[in-house]
């Protein structure tokens, strides 16, 4: 991601899902301080999102549960309507779960799918704009547990392994359109 030295700002628009706290908030802070235009996405942590926004310039906040198609589409459309493009999508939103495999309920299993659904819905919508612009970058935040698996985290490990496969396949499909 290149900076524009003439204006000392970056002419790049970045959407970071699940970014009101933790890794996502740090990604937002780092990019905003470098001059990127950042859309901070949150679902439940509005106070955290507002606190991050107060510290920085170039940050918009947008509430959406990106594991739901309509809300993910709204987030991506917000960025495109406001800035005309999305240069970078960072799929960071996700939930974790620590539970014995034999204690997992059907609801637990279905809920953990939000880790993959959020990346799918946001990437699919953002890719349309990126393909049109013949440029873009999609970063999916995964976990070592998606590679090695973790005891008491079967559902979480499975969702992150699926995200890793999604990332590899998507890179091959979008690469010819100059999207990394």
Question: Mind explaining what this structure looks like?
Answer:
With 180 residues, this protein is an alpha/beta fold. Helices cover 49% and strands 13% of the residues. It contains seven helices and five strands, in the order βαβαβαβααβαα. The protein has helices at 22-33, 46-55, 69-83, 106-112, 114-133, 145-148, 154-174; strands at 13-16, 37-42, 59-63, 88-91, 137-140. It has a five-stranded parallel sheet, sandwiched between helices. Helix 3 packs parallel to helix 5 (114-133).
Task: Report a brief summary of the structure.
With 180 residues, the protein is an alpha/beta fold. The protein is built from seven helices and five strands; from the N terminus they run E-H-E-H-E-H-E-H-H-E-H-H.
Overall, the morphology is globular
Summed over residues and divided by their number, the pLDDT gives a mean of 94
Strand content: 5-15%
Helix content: 40-55%
Number of strands: 5
In this structure, how is the largest beta sheet organized? 5 strands, parallel
**Order of SSEs:** EHEHEHEHHEHH
- The number of helices is 7
Strand order of the largest sheet: 3-2-1-4-5
| Rg over C-alpha atoms, rounded to the nearest angstrom | 16 Å
